[in-house]
Amino acid sequence: xxxINQQVWKALQTDPAIMRDSQRKxxxxxxxxxxxxxxxxxxASLDAVISSIRRFPMNDYQEEEKIxxxxxxDSVISxxxxxxxxxxxxxxxxxxxxxxxxxxxxxxxxxxTDEVKILAENAHAxxxxxxxxxxxxxxxxxxxxxxxxxxxxxTKGVLARIAAExxxxxxxxxxxxxxxxxxxxxxxxxDIVKAHERIIMLTQS
Length: 205
Hints:
This protein has nine helices and six strands, in the order αααααβαββαβαββα. The chain has helices at residues 4-13, 16-23, 29-40, 46-55, 58-73, 92-99, 122-129, 158-168, 192-204; strands spanning 76-88, 108-111, 116-121, 136-147, 173-179, 182-188.
């Protein structure tokens, strides 16, 4: 069973808004402790939670943030609209066999055990879906490409930082492809402007 320290620290680390405001010393510790007790249903006294918050290794967190910031400062960001996701309930080997020999422009492919998702331009998605029985198509997505510094390969928290920034803006990530140091994030086309702004903020803060 996790200790109160472990529960409190996990709650802090998984909430980017709290971490950001705590780093800036904008949060009242007692109010934060009450919030965590209610949110996480902590079985501990208010004083015990306050003590755990005060023991949180903020210096270590700040050092990690500095490392991440250097990585994002050197990143290259681009966007692409009119994308779609084709979901195919089939083993990857079967999908690739059917696609072999067919020339499709700008395809991204992610695979699971029994499902494949193909990210393609809206204009090609329905054509691809017709090849596979029961395939589902989600149109009107946008792609954000984030290519970070090469040292990102050996740095923890890069993907989490991108996801957290979008979560803070209440933006849902529909799909994601990774070939580090490049991250491809797919969001609803209606959210692309706001999503692009939030990712740009990572390179400027």
